[in-house]
Amino acid sequence: PVYQQARFIGSATKLSNAPVDQGLEIAFAGRSNAGKSSAINTLTGQSSLARISKTPGRTQLLNFFEIDSERKFVDLPGYGYAKVPVAVKKQWQQMMETYLQERKALCGIVLVMDVRHPLTDFDWQMIRWCEHAGLPLHILLTKADKLKFGAAKNTLLKVQRELSQVSIVITLQLFSSLKRTGIDDIHQILDQWFQF
Ligand code: GDP
Question: Taking the model in full, what pTM does it have?
């Protein structure tokens, strides 16, 4: 129920104009179109919360949502746009790396992947950054409704195997915003990271 209180508090183009680095923060990352906005909306029970992050001009920003005075969600810019200029990509990489390395409040990353296209190059980059920063990672394999249960489960196991070489705590689960499945599982992880 606490996640339903999430409200947008502001955007930042870079770390220096982000809200003060205090309390606890959980960041959401994912390739564009993976289903990140839908997942944020589903797990907060708010049908249009993450629309803010899709507003033109705000897509390349860090968007902050307050859960309570000590806890925030951060929607990180979606990555993997095919046509972005190299300079923009560099800038994005720089910002993400700095944020993941230096943000003290950051206590975990939720990485959203389309269950049909898991572990893209961009996902691996994010995983390596989390590993480097020593951050726990929770992977949502979303759009699970698009596969038969057996196939979705196989993907889960396959991804789990491929991640066994990574030296941070990684949990993963199937999720569907459409069918609203997997919500309790992610709530449990968020509760743990947020020390509820
Ligand atoms: P984002 O770019 O990662 O924020 O992705 P969106 O949340 O905007 O979703 C991209 C597309 O996938 C939209 O057309 C959504 O309706 C669709 N989508 C998102 N989540 C699900 C899901 O769980 N199941 C299905 N079938 N479609 C989904």
Answer: 0.96
CB atoms closer than 10 angstroms to residue 187: 15
Domain housing 141: 2-193
Ligand 1 geometric centre to CA of 37 (Å): 7
Looking at ligand 1, which residue's alpha carbon is closest to its atom 18?
A: 35
Closest CA to 73 of 23, 6, 17: 6
54 versus 144: the higher-pLDDT residue is 144
Q: Which helix (H) or strand (E) holds 150?
A: helix 149-162
Give the domain CATH number at 49: 3.40.50.300
CA of 34 to the centre of ligand 1 (A): 6
User: What is the C-alpha to C-alpha distance for residues 6 and 43, in angstroms, rounded to an integer?
Assistant: 10
ipTM for the predicted complex: 0.99
CA-closest candidate to residue 31, choices 67, 69, 80: 80
How many domains in the chain? Answer: 1
